[in-house]
Amino acid sequence: MIGPDDEINATTPTPPQQHQRLRRLGPAAIGIGLIIVVGLVIGAASALGFATGWSKAAGGEVIVVRNGGFLDDNSFRQVIQPNSELTYTGLWSIDHPYPASQRYFKVSAAQNADSNEVINVPTKDGVLVGVEGTFYFQLSTEPAILEDFDNKFGTRTFPGGDKSLHAWDGDEGWNAFLAATLGNLVQNVLRQEIGNVTCADLVASCTLAQNSTEVVVPTDGKGNQTIAQVQQAVNSGFAADVQNILGVPVLTNIQFALSKISLPDNVQQAINDAQGAFAGVTKAQAGLQQAAIDAQTNAKKQEGYNACPVCGQMDLLDHLPAGITTYAPGGAFAIGAAQPSTTPQG
What total number of domains does the chain contain? Predict the structure, then answer.
């Protein structure tokens, strides 16, 4: 006969049975828990990636976007043009922002210059001149050109002081790129174009330092015209060099402004000496011209005195020194200075 207690014992698992059931459910529960945790992590990462997967380019900036998701490659994705609206760029993509406004590369010995030195190049007649100027240009915003440029130069670093920088690491990174790539191109194009003209074409006073046995041909104001031609040639040559050396026509609207031509010390001293000598000659010539004018003036005066002797005497009286007491040009002619009266007043 089965009592109430026996019925309860028959339906309630004993402790060993509970342990066995837990053992059977344990791996499944752990697996489910792991799946939930991983799902939450992936969901949070995806949400974060989606939230940060938007970009916009400011004015004067163009952005090259590269894939960067967990399952993506790092290839080129898209270009965001300047002054764009908020644009979706994908999960975990990488932005490479480049300057789209006009930039420059300054060749000068000034501390704020990009080259930090004057570029010395020889002229056609062998005078080593120092060239200072500024290259102005813009970065192309054509997607195909930017893709090629970013593949070649946006995926590498350049020395920037004590660290390595990407070309898209702000102004510091962009300047590091320019210094590493354009410095030699600038020197090369200036050497080519300055070597096609003479020193006198650039600096008119160079004619003063020529051999004295040579005929000095005046430039007749052609110096400015020659400088303009040099600048135009540098513009064309530099654009061609950029495309040939960098392999991509990434720089556009190139303009070179020549600001200063400096001469070697010995040439400048020769010019100074020649200018000093010419100044002495000019002074002597001025003295000769003044003497000739004075002689002509005196001759005209003498003609007048011959026609009017009294006029000559009157002019002579006007030029007598102060305090003279007697002037007697002839025995019958004498002029005495006025004497103070000694007669007492009554």
Answer: 4
User: Which of 36, 68, 96 is the last residue before a domain boundary?
Assistant: 96
Q: What is the pLDDT along the chain (346 residues), one digit of tens a residue?
A: 555 555 545 555 556 655 565 555 566 666 676 777 676 666 665 555 555 678 889 889 999 999 987 676 889 999 999 998 999 888 888 999 999 999 999 988 887 777 778 889 999 988 889 999 999 999 999 999 999 999 999 999 999 888 999 999 999 999 999 989 888 888 889 999 999 999 888 888 887 776 544 444 444 555 578 889 999 999 999 999 988 989 999 999 999 999 988 888 777 777 777 666 666 655 666 677 777 787 788 777 777 777 777 776 777 667 667 666 555 555 555 555 555 555 555 4
Distance (Å, whole) CA 247 – CA 175? 19
Could you list the beta-strand ranges (E) of the chain. 54-55, 61-66, 76-80, 87-88, 94-99, 103-107, 119-122, 128-139, 157-160, 163-166, 251-262, 326-330, 333-336
158 and 253, same domain (yes or no):
yes
Based on the fold, state whether residues 167 and 129 are members of the same structural domain: yes
Question: Do 46 and 83 share a domain, yes or no?
Answer: no
List for the chain the helix, strand, coil content (%; round to 5): 50, 20, 30
Do 44 and 63 fall within a single domain?
no
Q: Amino acid identity, residue 144? A: A
The answer to whether 209 touches 234, Cβ cutoff 8 Å, is no
Which range marks the domain in which residue 295 is found?
281-328
Say if residue 47 is in the same domain as residue 142. Answer: no
What CATH number does residue 190 fall under?
Answer: 3.30.479.30
The predicted model scores a pTM of 0.62
In a domain, 345, yes or no: no
Assigned token pair, 153: 């130069």
